[in-house]
Amino acid sequence: MWVFKCFLSFIHLLLYLKSVIAILFQQIRSYFSVSLRTCTHGQIRHDSRNLTKLPRHISFVLLESDISFVDLAQLIVWSMAMGIPYISVYDREGILKKNVAALSSEIIRKQKEVFTEESSKYTFVLRTKDVKFDCELLAPTQVCISLLSEHDGKGDIVDAAREFCRGIQTKHRTTKEMEPDLLNSILKATYGIPDPELAFKFGDTQMIMGYLPWQTRLTEFLPLRTHISMKYSTFLSCVRRFGQCQQRCGK
């Protein structure tokens, strides 16, 4: 009798191992098929349709000492191709704000590689705190890219508080008006755009180093070592992970 039970256990073990190997083989094949192929707009859009959820606003938080404009532009263009309308990029020192023209040139170059003949149909707006922006004017094929620095975090909250206090002094506002929606409306760094839902945090630093403390209450942060030479398969895997997250909103 025990011989028969051992035989059944052995058969079950073989079937289990077979199913595990089949799953691993499928995942490995899927990984290499994504890694080795040329990323085109059509292929990226196809991948985005198979996602459970896509963020409206994705953010790239650069906490590394070196910033690669080429690799950053590639991440931005992949996000554009997926159909994400709002993208923000944060570096503490504001290096990107000082080199808007260089970043814009790299985005255009990468856009032509990915979108090919359709690149002229898709445009982007590079926005800083000092540029007024109305999200309602964003076209279906247009993307808003916000460039952020440390002052757009705590500094922007301080500026908003000063503006509110001046409103009380001049009797244009009352203390009863101080609500979360009002503060959102007077924060200039992110005015007119939704809060980031997904943020890639690049670097070994375990802190967010002044990045938008007010707007990231519900943001899903994914830590990554570096943005340099990041593969599309890694980018896609991270967006998939976001689709599997459950936002409980404090519950």
Descriptive overview:
The protein has about 250 residues and is of the alpha/beta class. The chain is about 45% helix and about 15% strand. It has a six-stranded parallel β-sheet. Helix 3 packs across helix 5. It is globular. About 5% of the residues have low confidence. It is an enzyme of class 2 (transferase). Pathway: Protein modification; protein glycosylation. It catalyses: n isopentenyl diphosphate + (2E,6E)-farnesyl diphosphate = a di-trans,poly-cis-polyprenyl diphosphate + n diphosphate. Keywords: Endoplasmic reticulum, Magnesium, Membrane, Transferase, Transmembrane, Transmembrane helix.
What's the SSE blueprint?
Elements: H1 2-36, H2 41-49, E1 57-62, H3 69-82, E2 86-91, H4 95-98, H5 100-115, E3 123-127, E4 142-148, H6 154-169, H7 180-186, E5 198-202, E6 220-224, H8 232-244
Parallel strand pairs: 1-2, 1-5, 2-4, 3-4, 5-6
Outline of the structure:
45% of the residues lie in helices and 14% in strands.
Features:
single chain, 251 residues, alpha/beta, six-stranded parallel sheet, 8 helices, 45% helix, 14% strand, ditrans,polycis-polyprenyl diphosphate synthase [(2E,6E)-farnesyl diphosphate specific] activity, membrane, endoplasmic reticulum, Nus1/NgBR, UPP_synth-like_sf
